[in-house]
Amino acid sequence: MIEILSPTELPRAREAGALVADILRTLRSRCGVGTNLRDIDRWAQAMIAEAGAQSCYVDYEPSFGRGPFGHYICTSVNDAVLHGLPYDYTLADGDLLSLDLAVSRGGVVADSAVSFIVGESKPAESVALISATERALSAGIAAAGPGARIGDISHAIGSVLRGAGYSINTEFGGHGVGSTMHQDPHVPNTGRPGRGYRLRPGLLLALEPWVMADTAELVTDADGWTLRSATGCRTAHSEHTIAITDDGAEVLTR
């Protein structure tokens, strides 16, 4: 299903995006050496409830997961890149942490992810991974607008990631959002320009480039949810929800 929001619904999408951005910004400021992943989950739960919003994760039960997710945010550390299930782990100096949050507010979903390094140590490989996903995300946003096609976004993202020397996994990528978290169209992180669904004003897309340092192969953790690099290498993930408007693409979760 592809949803197209009316002009009167766009303000609610902006509110949802602003909430997700605010929660992620607050969580990032609280995360440091000694922070436990379960604390991050509790903080997210409290902020979502305080805002009168709803978690898109706690009851999420897709075919690729093991039962309901049961938590409020994805916390992926080092070799974990997607769907990181919060567990009893204390962050250490130099850890690469990705936080991925999707929330529904006013009947509209916004979805965003940020990767950053905890503490004072800044491993060069981690810095490069994060930079590549952020630059790819910016390129994907720049390629989006009314009349453009999904392939234009995918090509822009993939060109940056490949240019940085990374291989690309296409099992998971960006997607439409609206009244639910995962909708069509699928937005792969590589593709051919001029192909795919033509973008229309009112369409919401979550764009999410992610990479692993030396592989494109994923393995599923024993928890049934967390996706890790097959080689144990480090990973990074960046995501924004955008709205296609008459003038281009508006970032809702900046």
In short:
With 254 residues, this protein is α+β, with helices and mostly antiparallel strands. The chain contains four helices and 14 strands.
Provide structural commentary.
The chain has 254 residues and is of the alpha+beta class. Helices cover 27% and strands 25% of the residues. It has a single domain, classed as Creatine Amidinohydrolase, CATH 3.90.230. It has helices spanning 10-30, 37-50, 124-143, 150-163; strands at 54-55, 74-77, 80-82, 96-105, 108-117, 174-177, 183-187, 204-207, 210-212, 218-220, 227-229, 235-237, 240-245, 248-251. Strand 4 and strand 5 form a beta hairpin. The protein is globular and about 45 Å long. The model has no long low-confidence stretch (mean pLDDT 97).
Could you outline the blueprint of secondary structure elements for this entry?
Layout: H1 10-30, H2 37-50, E1 54-55, E2 74-77, E3 80-82, E4 96-105, E5 108-117, H3 124-143, H4 150-163, E6 174-177, E7 183-187, E8 204-207, E9 210-212, E10 218-220, E11 227-229, E12 235-237, E13 240-245, E14 248-251
Antiparallel strand pairs: 1-4, 2-4, 3-11, 4-5, 6-7, 6-8, 8-13, 9-12, 10-11, 13-14
Low-confidence segments: none
What is the average of the pLDDT values?
Answer: 97
Number of helices: 4
The CATH topology assignment is Creatine Amidinohydrolase
Helix proportion: 25-40%
CATH C-level: Alpha Beta
The profile of the biggest β sheet is: 5 strands, antiparallel
What overall geometry do the principal axes of the alpha carbons give?
globular
Provide the CATH superfamily. Answer: Creatinase/methionine aminopeptidase superfamily
Please report which band the strand proportion falls in: under 5%, 5-15%, 15-25%, 25-35%, 35-45% or over 45%. 25-35%
Q: How far is it from the N-terminal to the C-terminal residue, by CA?
A: 26 Å
Q: List the secondary-structure elements in sequence, H or E.
A: HHEEEEEHHEEEEEEEEE
CATH arch. level architecture = Alpha-Beta Complex
Sequence of strands across the biggest β-sheet:
7-6-8-13-14
- Our count of domains comes out at 1
Total DSSP E strands: 14
Rg, rounded, reads 17 Å
Q: Which class do the helix and strand fractions yield?
A: alpha+beta
